[in-house]
Amino acid sequence: MIPLVTDANKAAARVGLKSDSIVINGGKRLEGRIEVRGAKNLATKAMVAALLGDTPSLLKGVPEISDVGVVRGLLEVYGVKVTSPAPGELSFDTSRVESAHFAEIDAHAGASRIPILFCGPLLHRLGEARIPDLGGCRIGDRPIDFHLDALRQFGAVIEKGFEGIHLTAPDGLRGADIELPYPSVGATEQVLLTAVLATGTTELKNAAIEPEIMDLIAILQKMGAIISVEPNRVILIEGVERLDGYNHRALFDRNEVASWAAAALVTHGDIFVGGARQTEMMTFLNVFRKVGGAFDVQEDGIRFWHPGGDLKPVTIETDVHPGFMTDWQQPLIVALTQAHGVSIVHETVYENRFGFTEALNEMGAEIVVHKDGLPDHPRRVARRDFEQAAVITGPTKLRGANIYVPDLRGGFSHLIAALSAEGQSVISNIGIISRGYEHIIDKLETLGADFVYEG
Fold it and tell me: Which one of 46, 137, 167, 291 is the catalytic residue?
């Protein structure tokens, strides 16, 4: 528990949050317009990609979240000059990249797993990379074996020590034929960031093809990389001798859009999310409509609202893109507690992502987690050995409670549960939420939430 509190406090401090708790008076409808900027899962990776360029890079639409602060701090430790020429913009001058010690890296990296993605770029720039123990949300085992196995195939030599992992490339990095055992987003990013400057051609099979991956490929192509996305999750990368910097606007944050959509549904509200786009949200929008929510796609965003009437139960199976994202199921489960009937959520991506439901049950929800899944239930997504299932029976009245935030998406789910509940709730450890949600306090005020925050 102590490491989680420490990570949350650090995250909050990076975005100027001074208090670790918020008092919410539930039952008030959320209504208004908020804006989303670049995706956490793209902006932080684009910042790492800047290390590969011989000339400066400019990233636009950067969200003011703590994970961005983590990566900025790490880049500065390595000698990158990071400036903000305008709100939501970061410029990266990589002309003086230098090595850093474990202690310096660890001071910035405690609340993020992003340091593992520095390996390829640093091996190209410096011939070595140091990676401390990795932190992040406690939502299950996220082994870095996929990353390390891929780096070894490129020619990296890996030594594990007490402080962390030390990587070298005595013979340089060479293209490789790599097949991932699972279409991991992080491992796909690792291969892309390493292969673009490796000698020869890399073929990556069973790659992740999320929109954030496509946006990272677009960035690398702007820098001079040669990358082809082939059928059947195959990506071909032809290594080049050098890359320039980029000028790019980050893809919007799909996860934040889905979170506010769920908030509109559970509070019987009406929220316009500026910056949202339909194409990347289609899978979510289908489920949102099945549950009983309404939406209107406009040129500058998407409006989400509860149209009245009963919400309907659904069965969801999380999966890699273009399936239903695992990050979408947590806030949506809060809305499903108000659906008339039994909903089932099969979690196939992470093995411990239903821990947040314990607090929902304390608030009055009726959620049963099956730790070994429901193997006999009809499925479209292939079953995985570690998967779990949550069975939600509704509708149930939610009551205010004292809640301790366990992880990023679960924390936002607790927040919207409290916003819809009868009575008062105190949510602690909210710094975790700032890892992926920009200006959360300001947005709650804009939408008319009834809360007290002394920050």
Answer: 137
pLDDT band at 112 (very low <50, low <70, confident <90, very high): low
The Cα angle at residue 256 between residues 443 and 353, in degrees rounded to 5: 120
pLDDT tens figures, 136-149: 444 344 457 788 89
Q: How far apart, in Å, are the Cα atoms of 120 and each of 145, 200, 388?
A: 15, 15, 34
* Distance linking the first and last C-alpha atoms of the chain: 23
DSSP structure class, residue 164: E
Residue 328 burial by Cβ neighbours in a 10 Å radius (0-12, 13-18, 19+): buried
Residue 137 among the catalytic residues: yes
Residue 227 half-sphere exposure, CB side, CA atoms within 13 Å? 28
Order of strands, sheet of 366-370, starting from the edge strand that comes earlier in the sequence: 315-317, 341-347, 388-394, 366-370
When pLDDT is cut at 50, 70 and 90, the band that residue 106 belongs to is confident
Partners of 414 in the β-ladder:
none
CA distance 32 to 302: 12
Residue 137: what residue type?
Answer: C
Using one digit for the tens of pLDDT, what is the confidence trace for 425-452? 999 988 888 888 999 999 999 999 999 9
One-letter amino acid identity for 54?
Answer: D
Residue type at position 202: T
What SS3 class is residue 326? helix
Structure tokens at 35: 């804006």
| pLDDT given for residue 17 in this prediction | 63
Confidence (pTM) = 0.92
Write the DSSP string, 38-60.
B-HHHHHHHHHHGGG-SS-EEEE
